[in-house]
Fold each of these.
Amino acid sequence: MLRRREPVPFAFLAEADRFRSNVTPPPRQRASASEIAGRWLMGVTVVAGLVGSLVLGMPALSQDQAPSQNQQSQASQGH
């Protein structure tokens, strides 16, 4: 038994799943040398910023192995 599709207000919605285009898109243009250089420079800048922030942030993240006597608080000395 064949079932008919429910009518829809716009015919293109009913046929959208069956539609296949035979038109091929135009080929992509190749990037120019200046565009490639700009992308490369942007990538290097981002990587350098990440490495720089890591280098500058490492001293703040490191923990001292043995604090010197001058850095201990009075509470730790029993005063």
Amino acid sequence: MNTTPEERLAAAGLKLPPVAPPVAVYVPTVVSGHYVYTSGQLPMVDGALPRTGKVGGEVTPEQGAELARQCALNALAAVASVAGDLSAVKRVVKVVGFVASTPDFTGQPGVVNGASELLGTAFGDAGIHARSAVGVAALPLDAPVEVELTVELHTPMGV
């Protein structure tokens, strides 16, 4: 039996949150033909960051991975807000994860796995993607993680 990405997320105990409002001058998504590009999504839950600080410092790598998962969930909410629902997504093309980390921390890929694993849960093989995991000195609002997505849609949308 085919299930939708939303049903697969629900089976994992997750649901799409409301789209997080931008914290500066930008839009959550841009659609161009078959592609949706999300702005970087912070791990907001109910309008607030559940944790702040640096991975490798105040934030453990495991906590960072959970926050990256929340970032990806927020990015999927932004995608669904313009695509109608996640069944419109043909595949996840690219994930870029930024990890605010201490200078000696080198486990950024493991942190961003939280986002990648969520996309696999939602889309199966269509969630396999190219990816960058980048360590940075600081992120907006002292967020430990930020994630952006590029997804391809089955049907192009207005340009």
